[in-house]
Amino acid sequence: MTTSLYDASIPVFKQMLGGLAGILVKAEAHAAAKKIEPAALLQARLFPDMFPLTRQIQIACDFARGVSSRLAGVEVPVYEDKEQSFDELRALIAKTVAYIDNVKPAQLEGSAQREIITRPGTPKERRFSGQTYLLSYGLPQFFFHVTTAYALLRHNGIEIGKRDYMGAY
After folding, report:
1. CB under 8 Å to 58, separation ≥6 — which residues?
2. What b/e readout covers 28-61, taking b as 16+ CB neighbours within 10 angstroms?
3. Tens digits of per-residue pLDDT, 28-63?
């Protein structure tokens, strides 16, 4: 039995983004209960040279949309990535899930062999087969940013665990 790239991507993105939205709800409630300024959590970093929580979530959403679009052979939608509140970040996640909900399995048929070019025409240009792009680049990048967002919140005292991280499955 083989697994389609659709099954290896779209449901995974939706599950993990659902978990991410859930931990944001808990983070906002924690900030309110402890009288912590939300920006303290939203701008939290694990180390000074790393992106803050808001950017980690934006990038996770960017990867979910970008990978889905490239595998489907459609133009990647560009979002402004200017979210600065818990509500705005949850709205971004919802908008991303709504977008990838419109990607149909038929659009990804044959995408394992489709050539994916990232940053075309630049010194950082990379060429992948669709399967390599998803499994060796897209999913690891997505999980890195989702995991970092989780770690930032857990490090800052939010009572979340693996079930929160995993979302509904």
Report:
1. 79, 81, 83, 89, 92
2. bebbeeeeeeeeebbebeeeeeebbbbbbbbbbb
3. 999 999 999 999 999 999 999 999 999 999 999 999
Give the model confidence (pLDDT) of 140-158 as tens digits.
999 999 999 999 999 999 9
CA dist., res. 94 & res. 157, Å (int): 25
CA 155 to chain centre: 20
- Helices then strands, counting H and E runs in the chain, come out as 8, 2
| Domains annotated on the chain, with CATH | 5-166 (1.20.120.450)
Rounded Cα–Cα distance for residues 37 and 43 (Å): 10
- The answer to whether the beta carbons of residues 63 and 138 sit under 8 Å apart is yes
Look up the pTM and report it.
Answer: 0.95
Beta carbons of 72 and 108 less than 8 angstroms apart:
yes
